[in-house]
Specification:
9-stranded mixed sheet, 36% helix, alpha/beta
Length: 293
């Protein structure tokens, strides 16, 4: 091999490696986001935006985006160092909340509602169609949020409360909409009628409970980005990819156990993950005892 050939081969390898290294920087990479770094390093933002963009480009109009809005959802009422760090370093700073994150502030007392506004802001660009998208984006919530407290809403150009007359009357032609925690799935079709616009995306973001007690929804809202904690692990899906069942191991890392071409039942994935955990670790895979909070 001549020096010129060697140089060309070397540059090809370097270029390939550089491109491979940049992919996670662009779309957050493949597989479920890293626990719990992804809440702080934009991985969830990048993955969710990439999934939404792919779904919008494929013609999806009604979508569900679901993931824990703060690192430790189950412990949000009691507070954890991770949740406090998230409130201070991400929410207060990004939303420019007037009262900041401190004892007694509206943000600290209502961490989940303000976290969901933060995530709505983070995905608004993809919902409207990207940097060149011309759609205005509104956000409506059923949660306790004082929008006057927020100084920076980014691409969100309208706010309000779900199913109120005021929110209905203020709807704009060609408007994309993000609806936060609207409630049971039986209301979602009415949600589209009340707040959706023809041929415009409508995203249900982080609904707090399921009336079907299963994964995703049964109302044909495409689950474009979905991350749910289950006993001893997680379920993940990023459009148009497979559904994936992950085991969370004692060291906090995760392992993909199985992929599903179609949405599995919650019972099926829960049994797989729980039984695998018990076979490997018996009773010694506990995130509370292991300090994984």
């Amino acid at each position: 091999m001549t020096k010129s050939q060697f140089l060309l081969a070397f540059l090809a390898v370097v270029s390939t490696n550089v491109v491979s290294a940049l992919i996670p920087l662009i779309d957050g990479g493949k597989g479920m986001p890293k626990i719990y770094d992804a809440w702080f390093n934009d991985q969830i933002t990048k993955q969710a935006n990439a999934a939404i963009s792919r779904a919008v480009a494929s013609g999806k109009r009604i979508m569900e985006v679901q993931f824990p809005p703060v690192p430790n959802v189950d412990e949000v009422k009691f507070g954890t160092p991770l949740n406090q760090k998230f409130g201070q370093s991400q929410l207060a700073r990004d939303l420019k909340c007037k009262g900041g994150y401190k004892p007694g502030s509206k943000l600290s007392r209502n961490l989940l509602p303000y976290a969901n506004i933060y995530w709505a802001k983070r995905i608004a660009g993809a919902v409207k169609g990207g940097a060149l998208g011309g759609k205005p984006v509104g956000v409506l919530t059923a949660e306790a949020v004082d929008f006057d407290e927020i100084g920076n809403l980014g691409d969100l150009t309208r706010t309000g409360k779900i199913f109120t007359d005021k929110a209905r009357k203020e709807g704009r032609s060609n408007e994309a909409m993000i609806c936060i925690n609207p409630g049971g799935e039986e209301t979602w079709e009415r949600l589209v009628s009340a707040h959706g616009q023809p041929n415009c995306p409508l995203v249900v973001l982080n609904n707090s409970y399921s009336t079907t007690y299963d994964l995703g929804n049964k109302k044909n809202f495409e689950e474009v980005y979905y991350l749910k904690r289950i006993s001893k692990g997680w379920v993940f899906r990023s459009f148009p990819g497979d559904w994936e069942a992950y085991l969370e191991k004692p060291d906090g890392n995760v392992e993909l156990l199985k992929s599903y071409k179609t949405k599995p039942s919650l019972r099926e994935v829960s049994e797989l993950v729980r039984e695998t955990s018990f076979q490997r670790y018996a009773m010694f895979n506990d995130r509370y005892m292991g300090g994984r909070l």
